[in-house]
Design a protein that fits this description.
The protein is an alpha/beta fold. It has one domain: Alpha-Beta Complex (Maf protein). The chain is built from 5 helices and 6 strands. The protein is globular, with a radius of gyration of 17 Å. The structure holds inosinic acid (IMP). Inosinic acid binds near residues 69, 70, 148, 149 and 164.
């Protein structure tokens, strides 16, 4: 059994990641290690923010820990919403408003290329490792579909003609930036655990 802290208070995300990692991993959330305060995310990149979260928990607990930071980057908007994905249209977080703003900003743009990115910072035996997952696609002209969350209704992954919110969750979960980053971390951990 390998215990890892996942620096998230989101029960849904903790469960999803536990399912992706599977045995022999046991995942603890922030609540399990008695961290209830908001962890500052003051970095300028996905890498900085993922590391800030993981390192905050590591400094407090000295346990093996990982954190992720993800978002949508649109070429014609110079990579925006980027690290501001969650609060692009302001506070509090509002997915439909974020989507509306993206579509408004892209109105006259022919270039609809975009990608989702997920960066994981893993502090394993006191040393930091990064893992990155990306999924490329394009921004639809209008929202479609009810699955998923965030920008899923306007993101059409390459090779498909439906949005992430229209595609069955099993398909999204095998293509997604988060899935790809988690798979890389899992391969790394398995190689370390069985290393002699
Ligand atoms: P987080 O870092 O995973 O919390 O993601 C930050 C924000 O990026 C979310 O609030 C969403 O707006 C957006 N985002 C990240 N991953 C996805 C996804 O898989 N689908 C849609 N939106 C996403």
């Amino acid at each position: 059994m390998v215990e890892l802290v996942f620096a998230s208070a989101n029960e849904g995300k903790i469960k999803e990641i536990y399912q992706l990692l599977g045995s022999p991993f046991v995942i603890k959330g922030l609540k399990d290690v008695h961290i209830t305060e908001e962890i500052p995310e003051t970095g300028n990149t996905f890498y900085e923010n993922a590391f800030l979260k993981a390192n905050y928990v590591f400094e407090k607990t000295k346990k093996d820990v990982f954190a992720d930071d993800s978002g949508l980057c649109i070429d014609a908007l110079n990579g925006d919403p980027g690290i501001h994905s969650a609060y692009y249209a302001g506070w509090p977080k509002n997915d439909p408003k974020n989507i509306e703003l993206v579509l408004k900003k892209l109105d006259h743009s022919q270039n609809r290329s975009a990608h989702f990115i997920s960066v994981i910072s893993l502090i394993w035996k006191g040393k930091n490792y990064f893992f990155e997952g990306k999924v490329y696609g394009k921004i639809a002209n209008s929202p479609a579909g009810n699955n998923g969350f965030g920008y899923d209704p306007i993101f059409i992954p390459d090779g498909y003609d439906q949005t992430f919110a229209e595609l069955p969750l099993e398909i999204k979960n095998k293509l997604s930036h988060r899935y790809l980053a988690i798979q890389k971390m899992k391969e790394f951990l398995i190689s370390k655990i069985y290393e002699v």
